[in-house]
Amino acid sequence: MNELAAILPAAANLSTAEISDALDALRLPGSALGIGHIAGVTRIFGPAYTVRYGPVDQAAPGTVGDYLDDTPAGAVVVLDNAGRTDCTVWGGILSRIGAHRGIAGTVINGVCRDTFEADTAGYPLYALGRFMRTGKDRVQVEAVNAPVSLGDVRVAPGDIIAADQDGVVVVPAARAAEVFARALSLHEAEESIVQAALSGASLAEARQQARYHTLQRPERADA
């Protein structure tokens, strides 16, 4: 078992705040600004399966895509609709099928609709917002399993997506083991701080004992 595979079960329980702090400490981007929980359960964790949309070609229109047939169970569908909020690229049919097929959730640089169906299916949806107007004849799929943008973050296929009530973070696959190791260290430090403070230590003492500031401090660029 490689290092990442060994650490993933524990990493799946980390909060986005802990992962974001680890990304900061390693001087990596990853916190997707503006993308929040819309419907379904409030937890996503899994590798990205990416889809990028563009304006519809009026001369030879494409489709909004049947990519879900090729999305593996456990993957997170990441849809880049260029931040458009005037038309949706995800609706109730996809939420119900995604839930049935064991897809981990959907994250959208854009909007979704039919959120009642996602809630009913317990299917996690994160997006810029919700809007009822269809993307059909307005946008079409331009690329599948290619790099996309999620808010202000680049997402490559296979990058790890984590989401909770606080938002969405993207962990580059090539650095995932390192990021999660740092995040788990931060989690352990925070737990030790709380326990020490509840046992009578001052907050300053508890933080010093846990070396919390050292763990949070970004690494030197020349390190």
TrEMBL record:
It comes from the Bacteria. This is Putative 4-hydroxy-4-methyl-2-oxoglutarate aldolase. Mg(2+) binds at D114. Substrate binds at G91, G92, I93, L94, R113. Its cofactor is Mg(2+); a divalent metal cation. One of its GO terms (molecular function) is metal ion binding. Keywords: Magnesium, Metal-binding. InterPro entries: RraA/RraA-like, RraA/RraA-like_sf. Pfam families: RraA-like. It comes from Trinickia soli. Transmembrane segments: none annotated. PANTHER family: 4-HYDROXY-4-METHYL-2-OXOGLUTARATE ALDOLASE 3-RELATED.
